[in-house]
User: What shape does this take?
Amino acid sequence: MSKSSRTATSAIIIGRSSVVSQMKRLIETVAPSLGPVLVTGPTGAGKELVAEALHLDSGRNGKFVPVNCAAIPRELMESELFGYEKGAFTGAEKRRIGRFEQSHNGTLFLDEIGDMPLSLQTKLLRVLENHTIQRVGGNDDIPLNLRLVCATHKDLKSMVDSGDFRADLYYRLNVFPISVPPLSERSEDVIDLLDSLIEKRLAQAPGVAPPLFSDNAKKALAAYDWPGNVRELRNVIERAFALFSGNEVSGQHVRENLLSLQMPVGLDPEEQNAIWDATGDEDGTSMQVFEAAFDDAPPRPEAYRAWFNYHDNIDLRLHLRDIEVILIEAALSATEGMVSHAAERLNIGRTTLIEKMKKLMIEKSPEV
Ligand SMILES: Nc1ncnc2c1ncn2[C@@H]1O[C@H](COP(=O)(O)OP(=O)(O)O)[C@@H](O)[C@H]1O
Ligand SMILES: [Mg+2]
Assistant: This one.
């Protein structure tokens, strides 16, 4: 099947790595069928984008209706999904069409399905069996033709084992599983993503000078392990626009100012805070928590707990390595590349430092 060049999937999902190419082929194959799709993968990896691609390549002419089950209060979720009749409850002054009905002939995207309460799981199962819904406070069975795509960053199978997710629903939803790989498993896509996200950002704000990433900057981005996945890359680009618009970004800038939390010299503290606030993660947690922790050195280990909880899962080895690289480079730069002095400042032996520098490919005088 070589329809890749014409599909929405190939246009909107950036990446040429073999894992992403495979995933795109799977999306294109599954898109036209009616069975439910379960998209899994870590936060920020692109699950919602996969759901959109599935809809666009489905040939269905209804709408793509996204619902984030984690964002809707439990007590409102049923009426949000099923709608309600006038007078169904206090405050129901007129009939309201729910998300199921809105997605008739289209695609309903239930994001964070792992957060759906058990009582609603039972109702969802009934919808899948009968292809009809009843509005809250109504008796009519309303027939629906919808394609269901669900996503979760949780391990639904283990939720089934612990009794938090209905097994029968799990098997019904998991007809076509699609797993979105973390960005660390497709480093060769980082630069394509960088270029494409910068282009998108420029299209939104024409006239703004983009930051210019040097070859070393690109290397540093490709070497990073992206615990927050493509969303984190998007945030880094946002930060680069704020800090380096129209200027060249070096490898050291990437490591010190974009991936970690130092500000380039020359910005006043108020300006710094405004930038971190403006370029933090959508829910405003991770960067602020992390930033607060680094106000006073050394970093409080406790801050890593909040950071870990935010990301759910990380690659411990890569993170410890990144910390090591940053501290060694800081010591080398503070001692102007004098390895023995840097070793002293780090309280390790000179040969140990040299070995580490070799292993981590750190140069004596990191580029400025
Ligand atoms: N392969 C990709 N190509 C282009 N943009 C992507 C890709 N993967 C993710 N993105 C972008 O990254 C951001 C996070 O993706 P999203 O689908 O919301 O992740 P998730 O739902 O898994 O948390 C979005 O802005 C999305 O458009
Ligand atoms: Mg999402």
Notes: The pocket of magnesium ion (ligand 2) is lined by residues 47-48, 111 (CB under 6 Å). The first helix runs from residue 8 to 12. The two ends are 48 Å apart (CA to CA).
